[in-house]
């Protein structure tokens, strides 16, 4: 029993503050509050806005819209959408700081440019609804509740909330236009339909980060725009029901199986919804004492490695920026000290990126919290061990409270997880906070990413993860391709995950059993060991083992590979040279997203059996050179 059963059956209009009294963030009229913010923050936002003082709002061309159907390319069309919204958001915040009218004309230009867009639904997201699929151009009938509509609505709602008195001093039609567009494009379509997959109302359909992402916009709309008490209560109650579905289907161990870089819209998105409800009800609606809500937050420090590196699997980026403000606030709300530490350890927020989501609410909450957060500067918690039993993710480090030494993460699970890669039994190894053996992540999204040919993409395949390939057969996608018989053990000396990965491969691989153990041993001779104990059905099999690394591998001698991970620091991979030979491949065909995480080059170390084998035990060991 969570939100709806606990709170939604009451008369919410008596619990929730009306839109006039709900002031979650100081408006531009509150000059004392805005004047008390950090001067360097004011300087950053105003300087950035000045760069766009004579901004020519980019066209969203129909040819760019059609390009998705022709090539599957998303970026060109999305970049113009992101840019419009980012520039508008920057100018709104700068105007709140300056309050001189310097940016108002451009802000109004941006509002009307965005409101004039035929649809806020991008071509890639129209695909989700299977609506008008014979058409490659948008129509006003395409108004649907999805991520771009949600983010656009939130941006416009907060612009009106912050600057309404300034807008009304010019023309009441500015605020009226925002209200009308958000009602028509977000709130009405939300209330009219229960069959959006992300709502969680459809039997057998699992929701993901779309749920709090979209519901966050809906809650913002009903709380700040809707004046009819009955309609307001009805909309909030429906959002509560939907958020309950998200909480129910979240892994009970709190693990974000989409990975840490998706936590911000997932766990972080849930937090923002719960925070809005708590603020709007003056604390009467409060779920922060619930174990699952606390665990959804604590996941983040359980997979934190060092600095911006997190234990990342599937489509997740290796480097994540969950935002120190939301992490810190989440920790305060759930009274979770390690989460507070992680939030307080994150650096001051920098300039917003232009061609990505502009989270206005997050930027505003950060501005009014950063003095406290930065004043309480702390070291990240660097917890020693974590075991997320439901999702089957293990993390372990050599030293509690420090990034120094060895770190390992490993996963079991199944091959139908959110943003899935075929990666059962995959692992990562870091040394002193630097990556040694890694999960690549994904490239920029395209139509193929979400289509029937997804697993033709090379970086999703098991042969480009730290996994074996048997008889040339790769792991396959689907929920029945999964780990079995997992066992986890932990002590001050050893942390280990052991699991059978045979059923992650199809029958033609001919695997009878494949027991993989991923072990961290602490102490004087600290090491990470990967122990594969396998047997084949029928005839002996050709087998090779892939290892993905951003470090240039040097084959020093038989059974020894050296990886320089920092100036003057090396790690050593020890392998069974009696049975295995080695070759190293350079991966120089990465595109922009992988390059952002790893640089220009990656390497695949391939250890291959010298002869076909029927059964065997192979041990791979990684140590830090002394």
Automatic annotation (TrEMBL):
- Residue ranges constituting the Heparinase II/III-like C-terminal domain according to the UniProt record: 395-540
Under Pfam families, the record lists: Hepar_II_III_C
State the compartments where it is located: Cell envelope
Major localisation: other
Full protein name: Heparinase II/III family protein
